[in-house]
Amino acid sequence: MRKIDTTALIEDGAVLGQGVEIGPYAIIGAGCRIGDGSRIGAFTICEGRVVIGIRCSIGHHAVLGTPPQDVSYQGEESGIEIGDETIIREFVTIHRSTGLKKWTRIGKKCFIMAYGHIAHNCLIGDEVTLANGSTLAGYVTVEDQATLSGLVGVHQFVRIGRLAMIGGLSKVIKDVPPYTLADGHPVKLYGLNKVGMQRRGVSQKDREVIK
User: How many CB atoms lie within 10 A of CB 29?
Assistant: First the structure.
């Protein structure tokens, strides 16, 4: 059974799965599809083509699917896609892509903390964590299980590798290799993310090969 607050605005054409909850004053646009068991917080806006997976949690005042902050965008149809069981906290902004039928994609079981921003054409893998205030410019790729600490800024077209960890307040203007620790302004490498690899079950033999 769905639980939709009486003050929420659900436009004709929006598709809501079973058990979806929509909070007070949320706006769900006609192009939105929300998977079973997902929860949308108060005052959240989903605009344009927004596809949200199952059992996702979208915090209060999040803004999803608005046009990209890109002067080359000409109003073409594009969208954002959010994988299953992803958590998006309050005041996060995620923009749809530039380019016809292109997508900004966030994977499964990600954790995007408060005030984070994911710009147009970003590709975010599974189980990625963006701590409070982390900001991704356009066309950034973040691979599976990477972690960005608070207030990290990532330049457009940068790629951050699998299981990399970026320290807080870092300025990321170049690619960060997988399995590494990076920190600084601009960012520099400080060895391997040994703790992260251990927690994710990477064997000692594989860690030695990676080193």
Answer: 19
